[in-house]
Specification:
Elements: H1 2-17, H2 25-53, E1 62-64, E2 67-68, H3 74-86, E3 92-96, E4 101-105, E5 111-113, H4 115-124, H5 131-138, E6 143-144, E7 149-151, H6 153-167, E8 175-179, E9 182-186, E10 191-194, H7 196-210, E11 215-216, E12 220-223, H8 231-241, E13 245-253, E14 256-264, H9 266-269, E15 273-279, E16 285-291, H10 293-305, H11 316-328, E17 332-337, E18 343-346, H12 353-360, H13 364-369, E19 384-387, E20 402-407, E21 412-417, E22 420-426, E23 439-442, E24 445-452, E25 457-469, E26 472-478, E27 481-482, E28 502-504, H14 506-515, E29 521-524
Parallel strand pairs: 1-6, 3-11, 13-17, 20-29, 26-28
Antiparallel strand pairs: 1-2, 3-4, 5-7, 8-9, 10-12, 13-14, 15-16, 18-19, 20-21, 21-22, 23-29, 24-25, 25-26, 25-27
Helix pairs in contact: 3-4, 6-7, 10-11
């Protein structure tokens, strides 16, 4: 019995392990794997079936510029995009330098939309990106594809050429101006102009790789100013404005001495300067400082017009040149010798021109020149005559220590040096109808051989002493000779025989010619 119970017991255990409805875990796992495999295979079959249907068509939910191109072939998509692109405004090319903005329609700038390339890009979207990407697109995930742009470089260049003038910033030259007595400097500035080739290439590269929706920074070339610097001219002009001229006018007449002085400084000199643009020696443009000579003369004329005592004469032409020369030399003093006021003589009973001339030691011809409206051959008592100032006869600075004295009465010429008698020679003065005039004169000049056309005379070693009138000068010279070679008045020295000049012997004339110099006093009595 025990053995039978034991056997029965084991039998019951065996039956319990094979109870219906209970599967081993391995079987469950196998079944799950089978299910997954079947499901995956089914999905693969489904994907393959769907992919096969889109093998030549664009995947679902692919959009370009709001257009759903899913399910279309590339050609169909290109046709649709061509219509869309044709009606689409691509906007404007925008250029900016950070301060200014220029706009140009992209259609004029050479940019366009490429429907075929865009359709190909849409067709490529999602492919070779795995099952998940395909299923997500199939289930509704939207993919936006950027359009493909094209741009024509030459058209872009032509468009930029049209904008170049607007975008050009001209350079500003340095300038120098004189406002009253102050110098005003305008500094130079560089300009710039559009670098068309470089800017066009930048636009083409950007549009090709990134699209057109960007503002472009144009590339510029620097334009240097013609005149970059005026510092040297400024320094020179300032130095010239700082110069100073003292004009001191002095005169003496019949014991009366007068002196006037003027200081010409910055305010006056500013009116003389000419600051002008021009080209230098090397052809480079710049500013240059010049002197307006008429303005200098006008200043001097203004000085001469100021009230002066007793109408002293002011030698305007001479002073104007002196002022100009002194200014160009850097400034300094200009000494002016005033002409004494005119002498007035009232005709007395018995007066004749020759008597009046002798009284004042003034050649009659010079008196006639300053009295053009009076008949000097018919003088009337009480008439007023102007007698020229003495300085018309002695215009040069006196040579000290030398003197020539001529005696008409004795027909002698004496030469003095340092108050000592150096020479004493016989001479011949003018005849009665062409006298030698008395007075105080100077050596005015010398000429080795002078010619008197009125008498056809050659006059050796001619020393001019006074102007008799017009262009005629009387003077001292050696015995003259005619064009035939005949020497006149030889043997007549010591008698009045000349036409107004003072005649010496040949050797004496040469000796005096070599000794005399301009400014030596000549006294004829």
């Amino acid at each position: 019995m025990p053995e039978g119970r034991q056997a029965g017991s084991e039998h019951r255990k065996t039956d319990a392990g094979l109870r219906p409805g209970c599967l081993p875990a391995a079987v469950v796992t196998a079944l799950l794997l089978l299910l997954v495999t079947v499901g995956g295979f089914s999905l693969w079959i489904l994907q393959q079936a769907l992919a096969l249907s889109y093998e030549s068509r664009i995947y679902p939910n692919v959009h370009v510029m709001g257009q759903d191109l899913g399910g279309l072939t590339p050609d169909e998509a290109a046709q649709r995009l061509d219509i869309v692109f044709r009606d689409r405004d691509p906007g404007h090319l925008i250029l900016t330098d950070g301060h200014r903005v220029w706009q140009l329609p992209w259609t004029e700038a050479g940019m366009g939309l490429d429907p075929h390339s865009t359709a190909q890009q849409a067709f490529a979207t999602g492919r070779h990106q795995g099952r998940r990407t395909f299923l997500s697109m199939w289930l509704g995930e939207r993919r936006e594809v950027s359009p493909v742009f094209t741009i024509d470089t030459e058209t872009t260049r032509r468009a930029l050429e049209g904008l170049a003038d607007q975008m050009r910033e001209p350079p500003m030259d340095a300038a120098l101006e004189l406002e009253r007595d102050q110098l005003v400097v305008t500094p130079s500035q560089e300009g710039h102009e559009l670098d068309i080739d470089s800017t066009a290439q930048k636009i083409v590269d950007t549009v090709t790789h990134m699209g057109p929706n960007y503002p472009f920074a144009p590339t510029f070339r620097t334009i240097p100013p013609r005149i970059a610097d005026v510092s040297e001219t400024h320094a020179l002009a300032e130095e010239m404005l700082c110069r100073e001229i003292q004009v001191v006018a002095r005169g003496e007449h019949e014991g009366q001495s007068v002196t006037w002085s003027w200081t010409l400084g910055r305010d006056v000199i500013a009116g003389w300067l000419l600051i002008e643009e021009g080209e230098g020696a090397e052809g480079r443009p710049g500013f240059f400082v010049g002197v307006n000579e008429p303005a200098v003369r006008a200043t001097v004329e203004g000085l001469a017009a100021e009230p002066t005592a007793d109408d002293w004469g002011f030698p305007t032409d001479t002073v104007a040149q002196q002022v100009l020369d002194t200014f160009r030399a850097g400034g300094g003093e200009v000494a002016v010798a005033l002409t004494p006021p005119p002498r007035i003589y009232i005709v007395q009973p018995g007066d004749q021109l020759s008597i009046i001339a002798a009284r004042f030691g003034m050649p009659p011809g010079l008196i006639a020149e300053v009295n053009p409206g009076i008949n000097l051959n018919l003088l009337q008592i009480g008439q007023q005559l102007i007698i020229p100032a003495q300085d018309i006869l002695t215009p040069y600075e006196t040579v000290p220590g030398k003197k020539i004295v001529i005696s008409i009465a004795r027909q002698r010429l004496r030469v003095y040096e340092n108050d000592h008698l150096l020479y004493d020679w016989p001479c011949s003065t003018g005849k009665r109808d062409s006298p030698t005039y008395t007075g105080t004169f100077q050596v005015l000049g010398k000429q080795e051989m002078a010619y008197a056309s009125q008498w056809d005379l050659q006059m050796p070693h001619f020393i001019s002493v006074y102007r008799a009138g017009g262009d005629t000068y009387n003077g001292i010279h050696a015995l003259p000779f005619l064009s035939s070679g005949e020497r006149l008045w030889e043997g007549n020295l010591g008698s009045p025989v000349s036409y107004g000049c003072i005649i010496l012997g040949v050797e004496e004339g040469e000796t005096l010619y070599n000794w005399a110099e301009r400014g030596v006093p000549v006294i004829i009595e």
